[in-house]
Design brief:
The structure is a single chain. It contains 4 helices and 28 strands. By secondary structure, the protein is mostly beta strands. It has 2 domains: 213 residues, Jelly Rolls, CATH 2.60.120; 226 residues, no CATH class. It has a 7-stranded antiparallel beta sheet, with no helix packed on it. Strands 6, 7, 8, 10, 13, 17 and 18 form a 7-stranded antiparallel beta sheet that branches.
């Protein structure tokens, strides 16, 4: 379902519990823990879990001393953001004639390709990151994103990018450090047509190549938004490959029906071969195979959509769990986030049950805070498709009976897009199941357990958000 991203894991190494903008409409300061809490082994078999202290006191003959490696709230200490090792950005731009394969570089063309591109350039106008901000002091509108390039001292700078020759840009982006720019979700790449405003190529008709010129005049500008899993971080760099997929561009395009001009060239524009031009216009931007895109036409219309084969590769398949590490088995991941805000404070430990060896997330709410969302256990990037039925399932119990709020909302608007349910938590483990149908698609929905409001301890295991279509 999801492609695990090394950029996401970068957050696990970041300085945690920093001063930051809270994940609510109130922009108060908060503390955050990113990554794994400490591990402890306990025997829960036959024990009364209503007792608050269920941690590591009865472990037979083993040493039960647990080193306190949980991340503490350091809000009263020095919370200045510490410089992390740089993660520079490198971008490569190319053409690919093969069938679409994720993260592939441009390949050599085979003989007698149905279409060959001879010249194709665009003007690169901007790079943006779309992130959530838990461990940085930046205040950014997550809908607009953070402008990474051009820099403030050269706001009008652009770059000519040749896809047919192949372009690699590193020096111009040398001051971009993605490790400082939040918890990355998408990378936005903005273009506009170059001076030629056309793609020059050849189409194979009756086993001979006929030149064509496809006009880009219908596009004022466009933004490609690449999912974090489409970015490779091997070698200590963030490598973004912007690849134009020719097979996607010419899918179901029949050049043999096109009218050839007196100059023996097929002109495809608003005046020549108009029907073919309009069809190719619809396929042009999706051919970059980003997760989604938006563009503005020459007439001023704004168009936004997902690239469906990419979106389907990210969203869960039927009966697949969209939650990563819902059984807390995988170490050193940044999938689970503990949020402390509005006077709330909590610590976490992962407990390993003897016998079953299942892992249980223990959340000790030391100070309840003023709201249920003063303490939140969160997982982001839960990809949901509008109109599809899902079921959220988890097992939870506490040393004190009471209510919590379970919710799936948007990371950038904080609106509920899946469900919001008040769950009555008991002192013995019980399974909670909530069925819902999201009204909007969202590749980055946020699952929340709001555990604040009073001091108590929770135990949580086997968290799932299943597509049950």
């Amino acid at each position: 379902m999801k492609f695990f991203l090394s950029i996401a894991s970068i957050a696990a190494y970041a300085a945690v519990f920093l001063s930051l903008v809270a994940c609510s409409n109130d922009k108060s300061m908060a503390g955050i823990e990113i990554g794994n809490p400490s591990l402890a082994e306990i025997d829960t078999t036959g024990k009364d879990t209503t007792v608050k202290d269920t941690s590591v006191k009865d472990t037979s003959t083993k040493d039960t001393t647990v080193k306190d490696t949980t991340v503490k709230d350091t809000s009263t200490k020095d919370t200045s953001v510490k410089k992390q090792p740089a993660l520079p950005l490198v971008a490569e731009f190319s053409v690919d004639y093969s069938e679409m394969t994720r993260m592939a570089l441009a390949k050599e063309t085979a003989k007698k390709e149905p279409v060959l591109l001879d010249s194709f350039s665009l003007e690169l106008t901007q790079l943006r990151s779309f992130s959530s901000y838990y461990y940085t002091s930046l205040v950014v509108d997550p809908i607009v994103g953070l402008l990474l390039w051009p820099y403030e001292d050269k706001p009008d700078e652009t770059l000519e990018i040749s896809f047919t020759k192949g372009s690699s840009v590193e020096d111009h982006f040398k001051d971009i450090d993605l490790q400082e720019e939040g918890y990355l979700k998408e990378m936005g790449v903005g273009f506009r047509p170059s001076e030629s405003a056309a793609i020059f190529g050849r189409a194979l008709i009756d086993n001979e190549y006929t030149p064509f010129v496809y006009s880009l005049a219908d596009f004022q500008s466009f933004m490609l938004r690449y999912h974090y899993s489409q970015i490779d971080t091997a070698g200590g760099k963030a490598n973004l490959s912007v690849i134009f997929r020719v097979k996607t561009f010419i899918d179901d395009i029949d050049f043999s029906t096109a009218k050839i001009g007196e100059d023996n060239v097929i002109h495809i524009d608003s005046n020549n071969n108009t029907e073919l031009w309009e069809k190719m216009n619809k396929q042009f931007v999706p051919s970059f195979q980003s997760l989604r895109y938006d563009y503005e036409t020459a007439a001023g219309d704004s168009i936004s959509d997902y690239v469906m084969d990419i979106w389907e590769g990210i969203a869960a398949k039927p009966k697949e769990n969209t939650i990563i590490n819902g059984n807390f088995q995988s170490p050193f991941t940044a999938d689970w986030i503990l949020m402390n805000q509005f006077s709330g404070r909590a610590d976490t430990t992962v407990l390993i049950e003897k016998g079953s060896k299942e892992r249980i997330m223990q959340v000790d709410v030391i100070r309840g805070g003023s709201h249920s969302y003063s303490v939140q256990l969160i997982q982001e990037n839960v990809a949901l498709i509008a109109g599809v039925r899902y079921q959220c399932i988890f097992t939870i119990w506490s040393d004190v009976e009471g209510q919590i709020t379970a919710r799936i909302g948007s990371y950038n608007t904080y609106e509920t897009i899946g469900f919001q349910e008040h769950v009555q938590v008991q002192t013995t483990g019980h399974s909670v199941a909530i069925t819902f149908i999201p009204e909007v698609s969202d590749p980055f929905a946020r699952f929340e357990l709001n555990l604040g409001g009073s001091e108590r301890t929770f135990w949580i295991k086997e968290v799932q958000v299943l597509r049950i279509e």
